[in-house]
Amino acid sequence: MISKQNINFFEKIIGKKNIYSDPGDCWSYGYDNSKFHELPEAVLFPKDKTQLKNIVEYCYKKKINIAPRGRGTGNTGGSVPLNKCIVISFEKMDKIIKIDIKNHIAIVQPGVINKNLQDILNKKKFFWAPDPSSWAYSTIGGNIANNSAGPRAIKYGTPRENILGLEFISGKGEIHRTGVTTTKGVVGLDITRLLVGSEGILGIITEATLKIIPKINKIVTVEICYKNFKDAIDMIIRVMSHEKIVPYSVEFIDSEASELINNLEKDYYPKKSNVLLFQFEILDLKDIVSLGKIIKKLDRNSLRMKIAENINEQDKIWKARKSLSPALRKLGEYKVNEDVVVPVANLSTFLKRLKSMSKKYNVKIVNFGHAGNGNIHVNLIYQNEKEKNSTEAKMCLDEVFNLVLSLDGTLSGEHGIGIVKKDYIGKEIPKETLKLMKKIKDQFDPKNILNPGKSI
Q1: 174: which residues sit within 8 A by CB, 6+ positions away?
Q2: CATH number for 382
Q3: Cα(121)–Cα(15) distance, integer angstroms
Q4: pTM value?
Q5: Average pLDDT over every residue of 86-91
Q6: CB-neighbour burial class of residue 3 (10 A; exposed 0-12, middle 13-18, buried 19+)
Q7: Which end of the chain is more exposed for a tag (fewer CB within 10 A), N or C?
C-alpha cells in the first residue's frame, strides 16, 4: 500500500476525514459495472480544484498513479485503479456553480449526478441533453469522460455536442481552461472536445460549462411490433428520412429481448416481436393527429402499433422496456455487454449475421439499443464463468467486432474502451494514428500517471 509519508501529505491537503487508506475502506472503490476489480492504494475526496491541483502536483513529483472516479457506473473498467493507483473520488465536488437561463448554460463540478442536475433544470423548463441509462447515479464528469449519451442523442447529440467549455488539471498538476461560454467560437484548437471521451487519460475535469436546452412539454411515445427485424429497421430508415418528423429517441428491442420482457411482464408484446419505441416532441393536439397519420402511412407489416400521448400509457410502455435489464440479470452474471455502432442502413445485415454467430458458437445473443443512430447493445450470454472465458467465447466476440468494422461501424458508442476493449482498439485505429494519440497523451501527462492502462 501507499507509504505513510504520502498519506500524511494528502491529509494535510484534504484532512483525515477525506482520505481512506485502510484496505477494507478502499475495497468498494476498486470496481465498476464491468466486474473488474483492483484494490486502490488509497481513496481521496477533494472538495475543490485547489485541493485537487495540490494532490496532482504531488503525484506528478512522486510518480503516484491516479484513477479519477465518478460513481463507478461505467461498463469497461474505466475507473478501476490499475497499476497501484490512488483513486480520486468526486463525491464531494458535486456543486452546481451556476445556471444561466438567459444564456442557456449551466456550470457544474464533475461530481454532480446527472439526474440531480436534470431535476433542477426541469423546474426551470430546461434540460441537458445527455441521458444515459445510468443517469440516476452517474456523474456529469463521468458522462463527459466517456461521451456517454442515451436515447436523446439522436436529436440533441452526445456530451460532445452539449458542452461549451472545460476546466481541467493536466498530469503535471497545471490548471487549464478550454472552450467558451457562447455557442460559437473558433479561437485556437478545440481542446474541449479532445477531452470529451478521453476517459481521464489526458486530464482531470474540475468544472464543465454545459449547453442547456428549453423543454417542450409534450412527448408522444409510439410503440410498434414487427415479426422480423428487417421490417423494424426499414421503418426506422423511413421515419428518419421523413421531412416532417424528427424523433426525440428511437429504441430497438429484438425478439430475444422482447421474450425476456414477456417472461416478466406477462406476455406484454406479441410473441417473439421485434419492437420499436419512438418518442416525438409535440407542440399541440394538431401535431399529434398529424404524427399519427404519418406513422401509419410509413408502417409496413406491423403486428401492433400504439400511439401513446397519455402519461400513464407511456409509463406502461417504458416500464416494459425498463424491465429488460432485470430480465437479463436473471439469465445470470456471465454475459458480455458491448455497445457497438453501425450505420443504420447496415443494421439488418448486422442483426442477421449475429443470429448466425449465435448458432455457430452456441451462445445466446440478446440485442437492444439506440437504433436511430445504430448504437446496439449486444449481449452475449454464457451458462457459466468457464464458458464465458473460453476460447470460443473470445472467438465469438472477436467475430462480432470484425463484423462491426466490416460494416463501417465503431467498437464503442458510449461505454468507452477502458480495460475491456483495450486489446481490440488496434482493429479500428491504425498504428500511426495510435502513435499520434500516445504523443498527445505524453503532452498532457508526461509521466503517464493519469488512469494508466486504459483506452489507448
Answers
A1: none
A2: 3.30.70.2740
A3: 33
A4: 0.93
A5: 99
A6: exposed
A7: N
